Amino acid sequence: MLGAVVAALGMCADGIGEGLYAVRHGYRGRAAAIGFAIAAVLGALTRVVTPMNFTAESVAVATQAAKERPQIFYIVLLASVPTVVLGATGLYEPLIGLFDPGVVAGAVAGVGVLLASVGFGYIRDRRVAGGMSTVFGVAAFLLTEDLTVTVVASIASGSLAAHFLGARFGEEPDEEAPDAERPSLIPVRWRDMIARPVLIGALSLFALRLGTVVSYETVNGELAPGTEPDLNGAFLVNGAASLASALFGGPPLDPTPSPTAETAMPVASMVIFAAVMAVLAGAGLVERVGRWVPLESVAGFLIVVGAFVVLPENVGDVEDLPDGVALTVTAFTNPFYGIVAGELVQLLH
């Protein structure tokens, strides 16, 4: 049991770090507490071993087409409804079977390229914070291959560099940190909800989930002793947690590879993680930490996740022309366009 608790608490550092990225993009960190609570309950009932967490890739995709509230809330909301329906009805596995696995892998690999490019953009914006974050983040990952250590090293080094060296190199002070807003139901504005950027963003986030759930639940399920991957259950938990978060202005909560799966009690470890994150997010800890952390301090973590984790884990399955098309189109646009382009080329190939 001790190992399950230690793994869960270690994952919380990664959760807070990636949560900073979410709140800096306009989402309410405290609203995510509702989603984490739902994930804890449903995870215990379904015995899914994959935790749902703030993830940089889902936030990057969700805020690519639209940047402002409430559209960024609607993107998560609209992407979560079909996720819940398909997971609850057991139709996710048949659906994912309709897509070419290489095309889906190509789209997810393209998201890795997209994440890395966002990280390099932050280096251009603030060379000191972004550059130092990248140096220490990459070094930490190469030495440990642990994303929890990586996110802490990246954010801490970038923040310290911005605080002590930023002014000396002529960089502007940090923008005002986000407030820890109380969760409240998001307004319903139909015109905004059906706007083209929102629909494209929702389809892109949904397309990303098609790939990440099958990838991460399979990996975590194989690592967890005595369990089998439950793709439909993971899709249901993913959708329900994100839907609950989005209704109150929170970010998407998506699957992630996790050390909790390798413990002797993987389900219990996942539930502990979700419950602790519900408490931490509900207490406004994500926003409080954000007062000391510039956005650009996540540059190194984004580059590591994109170029060292997401891209290598998926690019091995990119073998044919349609797969490469999906990767390329996703890297320059979004996963929805990437999968559509890849499948069209597959039909013509």
Give the H and E element order: HHEHHHHHHHHHEHHHHH
Strand-residue proportion? under 5%
Low-pLDDT parts are: none
| Helix percentage range | over 70%
**Mean pLDDT over all positions:** 90
User: In order across it, which strands form the biggest sheet?
Assistant: 1-2
Q: Oligomer, anyone? A: single chain
Main β sheet profile: 2 strands, antiparallel
Distance between the termini: 52 Å
The class by helix and strand makeup works out as mainly alpha
Shape: globular
Q: What Rg is obtained from the alpha carbons, in whole angstroms?
A: 19 Å
Count of individual helical segments? 16
How many domains make up the 3D coordinates? 1
Task: Give the number of DSSP strands.
Answer: 2
